[in-house]
Structures are given as structure tokens and as C-alpha cells.
Amino acid sequence: MRRTLSALLFCLLAALASAPSGAARRLVVIDQDGSGPGGSNIMSMMALLQSPEVEVLGISIVTGNAWRDDEVRHTLRMLELIGRSDVPVAAGAVFPLVRTEEETRLMVPVVGQVGWLGAWGQRPAAVPSQPGMVEPPKPAKPLGPYDTPPLVEGEPHLKPIDEDGAHFLVRQVRAHPYEVTVYAAGPLTDIALALAIEPRFAELSRGIVIMGSSLNPHTDDPEFASSPRHEFNFWFDPEAAHKTLRAHWPRIDVTTVDVSIKAMYTQAMVDEISKSPHPAARYIAAYSQERYYLWDELAACAWLDPSIITRTVDLYMDVDLSHGPAYGETLTWSPPLKPAVDVQLVHAQVDVDLARFTRQFIQLMSPPRNAAPVAH
Questions:
Q1: Reading across the β-sheet that carries 180-184, which strands appear in turn?
Q2: pLDDT at position 11 over 70
């Protein structure tokens, strides 16, 4: 009997050892500017949280589209409403490494306005929105970095963990060396700070996914038509983007403005998602007000399924750090023309199978009633 049990145990262990490695869930840490409710920042996190193939180790929140503390509360409340209170949230950086709001405003008479200021203000009145776009209502008054106005979706009961974003990111990558993808869809301040804390942070990861940069977008959108190398995440913290792009990641995937503006969030998508009784779909039905480009959702979904990207360009990328009109703009070189300094190769996404991406996003946000629950 004992020999039989031993033989069965040996067979079981052998079967487990020979199981395909692809069955393991993919590990990711999210670094995001979680403005909300709804919107691209929040919905991109939801795409990763909804995927049964992914384990989200946690979320670090950085100032970008809104101030950090307000973003943290929106993110915590979203997690509560979709049933993911198990995911830890860390408060990251409040301010960029070097760029300041005051310096930026003082430069406007010299270098001109930009289309989006994020936490520092709404779209300038002189910059019209594209037809079909719907942006969230402006606050009654400009918010300061530590203002916490009432949330329309209700106040969260969850609290952020007692650890800052950069240290949290480092801890997760150290705990799972060479297994964790860093998903960075906001300004890259937290990533740069993590690299300063742990110089091997990039090498210890599985790679980084960045929503950032702009190459040559074909559009009438006034924010990009005359400024084709301007993109908000790189512009808001150029020094952090520079440090991140120079680090030695195993792989760098970048979702550019060029591809993002090809994917618009439409009312038809909202209507389809709203048919589902799933908590994520109910959240979107209640709080998804924007009809804008699917910036961050595309970055998340392309990591989940790279086949939705139909064209990439491999090039070397950096950011202009000169404090003039081009401060924060994207710099790129082809391999033969790259500088001798330590620039890194990136895989820049420039085209998408829009129909396939749209189906993927709708399915993530509104899984069928009989979908097997994901174990957390």
C-alpha cells in the first residue's frame, strides 16, 4: 500500500513538473495616474484586473491627469465597487522630479500653451475638442495637490498601504525577480524613483509597458497636429521619462500617440458594456463620462494580447531635456543613426486592429454570466 501511494505521489509530482509554464498567471505591477471616476486611467487598470490570465500585485498612483491624493481615492473606490479590495494601493509621487507648475506657467508666453495640463488645469479654452469627444466636467475651482473633494461614486472605505509607490514597486520586483512586468501608464516619476532606490530595478523586471511618446500622428486634433512630438506623460516629467528610457529593461513596449488616437471610446461601446450585470460593467455604466481616446486601455490590452497591434517600429527613444519650446518632447533615432550614449531600443506601437481591440476591451469589462470566477 505504501509503495502504491509513493508511486501515485511520484506520478502527481511529475505531472505538475511537466505542466506547461504558460498556465501560470502573468505578474504585473501597475503605476498609474488614477484620475476618475471612469476614464482611461481607471479603465486601463480594470482591464488588467479583469483578465483571468493576470495577477495584479498592486497599484502605485502618481500625479498626472489629477493630483495623487484624489487619484488614490478614486482608485480605491473603483476596487471596492468591482470587488477587488484585495489589491494593495500605494501613494506615489506628488510632484515631478524637476518640472514645476510655476515654471510651466511662466514659460507659456514664450513657448506657447499645451493642449493638456493634467493636475495643473483643464484644456485651455483656446484649444477646441475634437468632434465626438466628451470630457469630464471641470471642477468648480482649481484643486491643490492635497485637496480631497467629495467623490461622486462615494468615499472609499479602503486605505492605501503604509508604503510609498517607489518602494512598493521595488519590493514587488525583488520578491519576484525576472517575472514582473511594470505597466506604467502615467508620468514616469515613480519609475525613476524606483530606479534611484534600486539600480537593478529594470534588470530584475520582465520588462516595461509605457503609455507615452509621440512620433508622427496623422490627425487634425490641434493638440498634436502642429506638435507631433508632444505627449503629456513624457512632457509632465521629462527627467523621469529620460531616466526610465535609459534603464536596461529586458524589453520596452511603448504605446504612442500615433496608435492611441486611432482608438476612440464610443457611446456604442458603453452601451454594449452596460448590458452586462458584472460589477465592472455596472461601474462603467454609472461613471464612465468621457468619450475620448483609449490611451491607457490600448497599452494594457496590447500587453494582454500583442496581436491586436498590427505595426510596430523598433527605434531608440529619449526625451528632450532642454528648457525651451521642445522641453519634454519625444526624441527618436533609427539604429544606424542613434547616438553613442546609452540609449535603449523600444518597440513603438503605431497601428492597431481596432475591431479586435474593441471586442477584447468590451469582453474584459463585461464577462458573460457563466464566466468562471477568478481566484484571488
A1: 89-91, 54-61, 26-32, 180-184, 207-211, 252-255, 344-352, 309-319, 330-333
A2: no
